[in-house]
Amino acid sequence: MRAATLRARADRYLVVAPFAEREGRLAPVVWVLRKDVFAKLANKRAGWLEMLASSAPGSRDRWAPYQYAPWELAGLFETAIAVCADGRVKELPDARRLHPPAPNY
Question: What is the CA radius of gyration of the chain?
């Protein structure tokens, strides 16, 4: 993402959802985080912000706390909307604390 286009606000969220083209669906892992957190954690290179994240189960990279399964998105969006509506600024639930059953793909 171009650094100039990012408005690093605590009340806005960024969703990174890779698309598995062969399967015609979202990849098994997506990342959801506040824009200000993304701006802080991203690699900065020549006016760009880069996110180099591992989708491997049990990953311990800097992006792991923001990693979710696609079927968790609806609940996360509900939480983000509620947070923004009442003015509270907080993180979404840490994905490492969530242990949903894996889907059968």
Answer: 14
Type of residue found at 54: S
Which amino acid makes up residue 77?
F
Beta strands in 1-105 (DSSP E): 13-16, 19-20, 25-26, 30-34, 43-45, 48-50, 67-68
- Report if pTM > 0.90: no
- The domain spans of the chain are 3-97
pLDDT tens digit string along 10-54? 778 889 988 888 889 888 889 988 888 999 999 999 999 999 999
For residues 14 and 16, what is the distance between their CA atoms, to the nearest angstrom?
Answer: 7
Question: How many Cα neighbours within 13 Å face the side chain of 18?
Answer: 16
Specify whether the CB–CB gap between 37 and 12 falls below 8 A: no
Distance of CA 49 to the CA centre of its chain: 15
